[in-house]
């Protein structure tokens, strides 16, 4: 039987874990140069600089820069290839590594690979963060996997982890990409996030794409009537909804 996300993921880690480790003082500038080359899209230069790295945190950061570049270019195969090279050179994958791979999967709409990497991450004892779960939901949204995103949200709620607007935006988006579309569930997700005090305005555009301009306007008008301090010019800011 398929395990639930709560059993597979366990407790979500501190969001601070998403920060890439900083190298101790004294590391060569190759780290900076390789990351700069990656940002500029110069894969050849970045790879050459990578081969000059000896090891440690600088090497890990260089690999992260290359994987991120591949993710932005939509080249999942190359990103996964750098992951394999990273392990061959003795670098231990971190939550940042897996987040980058999940993002690469989302870029090309390959949710099956995203689930594979997420499962490997959990199996290796790497604790997911909100960024991890949010990126996983982004993969599911492209697939139209409404139930899977709801399962993630419910799992986080059960463990008393904050679920922000990003998760609900993914859920509403998934309602539009599912076959057939599920506008009724998009509205249900919208009402759920409003009930949690989240910013309605943050999902207005994606809600409009799923339920239409007229229905979105009606839903936002309803928020104004429900909130005494709101006025006709309000735009769903803050937690007034």
TrEMBL record:
<dbReference type="InterPro" id="IPR011990">
    <property type="entry name" value="TPR-like_helical_dom_sf"/>
</dbReference>
<protein>
    <recommendedName>
        <fullName>Pentacotripeptide-repeat region of PRORP domain-containing protein</fullName>
    </recommendedName>
</protein>
<dbReference type="Pfam" id="PF13041">
    <property type="entry name" value="PPR_2"/>
</dbReference>
<keyword id="KW-0677">Repeat</keyword>
<feature type="region of interest" description="Disordered">
    <location>
        <begin position="1"/>
        <end position="25"/>
    </location>
</feature>
<feature type="repeat" description="PPR">
    <location>
        <begin position="59"/>
        <end position="93"/>
    </location>
</feature>
<feature type="repeat" description="PPR">
    <location>
        <begin position="94"/>
        <end position="128"/>
    </location>
</feature>
<dbReference type="InterPro" id="IPR002885">
    <property type="entry name" value="PPR_rpt"/>
</dbReference>
């Amino acid at each position: 039987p398929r395990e639930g996300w709560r059993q597979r993921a366990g407790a979500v880690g501190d969001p601070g874990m998403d920060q890439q480790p900083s190298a101790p003082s004294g590391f060569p500038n190759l780290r900076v140069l390789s990351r700069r080359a990656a940002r500029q899209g110069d894969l050849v230069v970045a790879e050459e600089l990578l081969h000059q790295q000896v090891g440690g945190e600088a090497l890990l950061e260089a690999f992260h820069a290359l994987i991120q570049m591949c993710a932005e270019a939509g080249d999942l195969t190359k990103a996964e290839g750098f992951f394999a090279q990273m392990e061959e050179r003795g670098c231990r994958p971190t939550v940042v590594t897996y987040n980058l791979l999940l993002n690469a999967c989302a870029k090309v709409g390959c949710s099956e690979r995203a689930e594979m990497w997420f499962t490997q991450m959990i199996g290796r004892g790497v604790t997911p963060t909100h960024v991890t779960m949010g990126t996983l939901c982004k993969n599911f949204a492209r697939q139209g996997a409404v139930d899977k995103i709801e399962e993630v949200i419910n799992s986080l709620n059960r463990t008393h982890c904050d679920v922000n607007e990003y998760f609900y935006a993914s859920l509403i988006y998934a309602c539009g990409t599912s076959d057939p579309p599920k506008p009724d569930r998009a509205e249900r997700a919208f009402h759920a996030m409003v009930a949690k005090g989240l910013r309605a305005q943050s999902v207005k555009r994606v809600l409009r794409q799923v339920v239409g301009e007229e229905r979105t306007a009606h839903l936002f008008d309803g928020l104004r009537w429900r909130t005494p301090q709101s006025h006709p010019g309000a735009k769903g800011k803050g937690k007034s909804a």
